[in-house]
Amino acid sequence: MWLHVGCAQWTHPAWPQPSREKLRAYASWCNAVESNTTFYATPSRAVVANWAAQTPPDFRFVVKLPQVITHERRLTNVDTELRGFLSAIEPLGPRNHAVWIQLPAAFSPTDLGALAAFLHNAPRDHRYAVEVRHRAFFEDATASANLERVLARAQAEWIPFDTGTLFARRPTSFAERDAWMKKPRVARRTRVLTGHPIVRYIGRDSVEETVDGWSYLVDLVVHWISEGRSPTIFLHTPDNVEALNLARRFHATVAAAVPAVAPLPEPVEAEPPTLF
């Protein structure tokens, strides 16, 4: 049984990491990562091959489509860009868990035709997962059902970004205020569509509040694993200082309830600082 956990990045100044091969070090702490850098530009195959070389075959990348596809072209007339991107990430092999289609907040239920056409034409040898931010998808039952039908036809998953804990009370730090301005305030979603659910969860600066807020998610993940699903959970905080430890803590909490879950690797020690 597998539970994959990870963060929004594989390097952070506050994390215990060596000066080189930071991804290899990160992969000794977590077994999944959100690949946000691909949103800004399609990486070269050589760069992606280096990512693969630093991670074991069972490591999961959830790679975000470039913004030219999702935000600038809004999924229309992007066949060349999509195929170029999929070719670039090919060196990941089995590590490429899902292609992450994060849509802008302005992408509304009236745009579902573009998503349906995109998923219909997308190569079938990849798994796709969609994140929407328009509030109608969370507040209007018809809009939600229509989106689910589009995703179901392509065997794609709906990625929820759970910001409930973040917005539970007013921010008390710069990082929390910044997150309040940037993160979507949408209803919590617990329904999954495939055998590979993906959830993004953001807490607060307080570790205790973050852990208290994910209790429902622990129960859900235990249930999904009992159903034979293979979930991937990404843990965020406003500044992500504690995200690495929180990801391992979440995994340990689930593993305590489901001992058959495969363990995480043992973290490698960071290199001691040198003068040269």
UniProtKB/TrEMBL annotation:
UniProt xrefs under InterPro entries: DUF72, UPF0759_sf
Query: What is the name listed in the Swiss-Prot or TrEMBL entry for this protein?
Result: Uncharacterized protein YecE (DUF72 family)
Q: Which organism is it from?
A: Kribbella jejuensis
Organism taxonomic ancestry: Bacteria, Bacillati, Actinomycetota, Actinomycetes, Propionibacteriales
